[in-house]
Amino acid sequence: MVAQPGRARCEIGTSGWVYPHWRGVFYPAKSRSAQWLQHYAAHFHTVEVNYSFYRLPSAAAIEQWKAGCPEGFVYAVKASRYITHLKKLRGVEEALARFLERVRGLGDHLGPVLYQLPPNWNCNLERLRAFLQWLPKDLRQAIEFRNSSWHNEAVYDLLAEHGVGLCIVSLPDLPSILRTTAPFCHIRLHGSEAKYGSCYSEEELSWWAEQVLGFLQDGKDVYAYFNNDACGFAVHNALRLKQMVGEGC
Prior knowledge:
By secondary structure, the protein is of the alpha/beta class.
């Protein structure tokens, strides 16, 4: 397939790059972890940072990521679990401000900020509405819902009102809702058969390529990340999807 995206931006990569089990699969067998980002950036223009979900990156780490990538490379950054899982979006104004201030240190290398909500939390429209009011308008931000109760028109309308993206997910136990609520699409592919542990087939990747091309033709920027890191599946799937969509990704 050859993409005709116009001015729309297409970024395809993986969720994270620091995986020792990728040594000898993607990274050179005798490479040091300090060399991995440079190697990764030679093949992809973007990566999704999951580290920030567990711990606030230090200012030094932000500077290291910024210095370790080429011009045009972007980091999608996953927000702290303190905000999304422990506090469930309530009373997080200070934590949110601290997190966003830190990741803004990436400058032009900062891509979308992702907020992943826990699978055991049912839809709470009022909590979501209050949280969205705290989000700055100058950043691209998306929310990933892991509970099907959040997938309703009221939620979609609320996200669209604030220009926040609905994260499109691929998971074995949830449908992929192909809905956009912002000028961009954030897609996370966790595995179709086993979460984080299955490889997408050629047929499945072809289907996703069609969806990506459709979003691009609609003028939507696309950020797509494979999170099936087992056995290096994420790398192989991301490289193949890039080929299918076109050299612009």
